[in-house]
């Protein structure tokens, strides 16, 4: 049976076999260090093996069936976690993965993965690769050996290696820039979380100007000011935004948010008083325009204008192709705009915020929403918030890690549906019309309108 969207990111933890083969928790003795060499949850292994065996390779196309692939992956991860001993988990975390991260960045910056991908990824010796990238051959051999042990490249013979799909992907800017962005911007913040929390008696950060990011970077600048301050940071951050969005179901497709029904139908094409075309969609903080491009590819003959807004440093680096004519003869309009200031586009069909609210503490979110609310046409304009909607149980790691990074970088957070409703309805006087999405806490679209006062009529 196909897994439900809520189930794909998590195996059936609650129904796991009792931990019969492991040491019982009642006899746990913290002084007995032999626990470190026993598998973490052996009782779950038979059930997980049965679950995994029930996937039918012949009937399922794992390259296109995303739900089946993610569900199988989540069971495979659980199997590894159950089989590993605490010692093995420890060494993987603190040694194998930390060194892995840094050698990948070195590989990116020395063009190692480009060299490996040459000649259709044919196997190459460490000596040949070292010569091509001007590297000490013995050192490179040690690096390649670890990358192979972590399954990032394939060892095809003694001293011979070829890339797999992952290491080939490291030659693309979204992946390469993401590693550099995390090394330069995110890890100095996360690696200082413990110190920052200790000085604050273990209270959550709640401001963008005093949090582990500002502490770790020893700066009074906010994250976005640091990003805007160098071309390299801007480029790597934008790369990461593109990488993050890849592979998700299109935000405005039938399976996520049915934009054809919810936005295009009911769009008012009446020209504005100055004769211009009315606006369909304003992507606020839209970065380099990837979500508007998704909208165009899903709805090529959409009516109305599309507007991309972001800070000047980002608008300046949007690719020229973004403003080329669309299939319907129009083009995306670029607009420098700070979303804490008055919104210049009045009465659009929709204002879209993707990964904006999670960057800002509660009070700042209120200020952004206030500016949008002022220009929304009651009963017509929609506010679309594309964010994690963390389920009360079984949240996916994609949502939980992001929540922690939002705390560290911005003093902000990801939210559950209850927390969203509290902010939008109780805090801002908006009405939530629906929460759409693939489920599992991996992004959903919260659709809102301005709550009508009693006696006010709807326009459609
Ligand atoms: C986390 S990114 C999200 C980008 C894009 N919406 C996406 O989901 O891929 C946040 C975006 O907000 C923009 N931003 C930050 N502060 C802003 C402000 N005050 N006004 C407008 N945009 C801002 C950043 O430049 C960045 O592009």
TrEMBL record:
UniProt biased composition (Polar residues): 14-29
A GO MF term: O-methyltransferase activity
Signal peptide coordinates: none
Keyword vocabulary terms for this entry: Methyltransferase, S-adenosyl-L-methionine, Transferase
Keyword Transcription regulation found: no
Region: Disordered, residue numbers: 1-30
A Pfam short name: Methyltransf_2
InterPro entries: COMT-like, COMT_C, SAM-dependent_MTases_sf, WH-like_DNA-bd_sf, WH_DNA-bd_sf
Residue ranges constituting the O-methyltransferase C-terminal domain according to the UniProt record: 280-425
Superkingdom: Eukaryota
GO BP: methylation
Cited PANTHER family: O-METHYLTRANSFERASE, PUTATIVE (AFU_ORTHOLOGUE AFUA_4G14580)-RELATED
Protein name: S-adenosyl-L-methionine-dependent methyltransferase
Lineage of the species this protein comes from: Eukaryota, Fungi, Dikarya, Ascomycota, Pezizomycotina
